[in-house]
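PROTEIN DESIGN WORKSHEET
SECTION A - STRUCTURE
LENGTH: 286
TOKENS:
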């Protein structure tokens, strides 16, 4: 009985709901959920070398297993070209020359509970590279562990796995659960996916809220959907203008000549995905 009372108190926001008050309790629980869901999320951090914010695009930065830092490709590319050397710009460790060397370094980070190292290992199990045999179940297992340690991108990938039934049974409730964890953790691509799901269900006001937040984090696709919402009468002129301003501010903060040079250099072998109308498992995998 005590356990049931505690559970009901937690669900009711601290008070035990009488049968006649259950409707109000559910309403208040939903309100609290939305307050947390649509709260401005934390930033994705910054590159420790140039001190500019990291973008929401995982192809624009790289995890360094030698020191556990996430560096923007602008700094990596600039150091390699300007100084004609192939070392980590942060800790000066020579870049790994084999999959075995990468794995040894990354596993050291995994062993000390580095969430990004665990996430990265999951990516390589998913893809079947770095000398690993492709294993979706192992990838999910690692992303669960990384998500519990606070890696928003790992939670986004878990949402994609449950949405598409990859490595797990398809389960939309769990997909939305992990998308929401990722979105509130600062992953704009997960936020965009939530907007798409709400839009597909006809919940246009909630969809616009998600797209507005993601646009403010620099998500181009979300800005386009706010624009479409304005054209279709689902978003106001003020919504669209605010999205334009916050999107531009975010982009301006994240861009630099070094980052643009790096993007041009790698564009020919790491093409960006353009489909904005369907959820794609690769949106969070660098």
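SECTION B - SEQUENCE
RESIDUE ASSIGNMENT:
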């Amino acid at each position: 009985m005590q356990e049931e009372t505690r559970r009901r108190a937690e669900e009711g926001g601290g008070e035990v709901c009488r049968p006649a008050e259950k409707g109000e309790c559910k309403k208040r629980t939903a309100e609290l959920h939305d307050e947390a869901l649509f709260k401005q999320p934390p930033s994705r951090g910054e590159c420790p070398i140039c001190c500019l914010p990291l973008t929401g695009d995982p192809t624009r930065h790289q995890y360094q297993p030698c020191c556990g830092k996430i560096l923007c490709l602008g700094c990596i590319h600039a150091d390699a070209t300007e100084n004609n050397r192939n070392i980590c710009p942060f800790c000066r460790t020579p870049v790994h020359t084999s999959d075995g060397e990468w794995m040894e370094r990354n596993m050291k980070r995994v062993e000390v509970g580095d969430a990004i190292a665990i996430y990265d290992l999951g990516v390589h199990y998913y893809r079947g590279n770095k000398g690993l045999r492709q294993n979706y179940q192992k990838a999910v297992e690692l992303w669960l562990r990384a998500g519990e340690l606070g890696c928003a991108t790992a939670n986004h990938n878990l949402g994609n796995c449950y949405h598409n039934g990859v490595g797990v049974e398809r389960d939309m409730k769990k997909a939305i659960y992990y998308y929401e964890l990722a979105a509130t953790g600062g992953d704009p691509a997960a936020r965009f996916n939530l907007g798409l799901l709400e839009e597909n269900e006809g919940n246009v006001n909630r969809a616009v809220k998600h797209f507005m937040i993601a646009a403010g984090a620099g998500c181009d696709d979300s800005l386009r959907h706010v624009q479409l919402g304005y054209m279709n009468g689902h978003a106001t002129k003020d919504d669209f203008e605010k999205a334009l301003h916050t999107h531009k501010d975010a982009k301006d903060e994240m861009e630099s000549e070094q980052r643009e040079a790096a993007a041009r250099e790698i564009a020919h072998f790491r093409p960006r995905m353009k489909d904005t109308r369907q959820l794609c498992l690769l949106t969070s995998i660098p």
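SECTION C - NOTES
The domain at 43-95 is CATH 3.30.40.10 (Herpes Virus-1).
The two ends are 49 Å apart (CA to CA).
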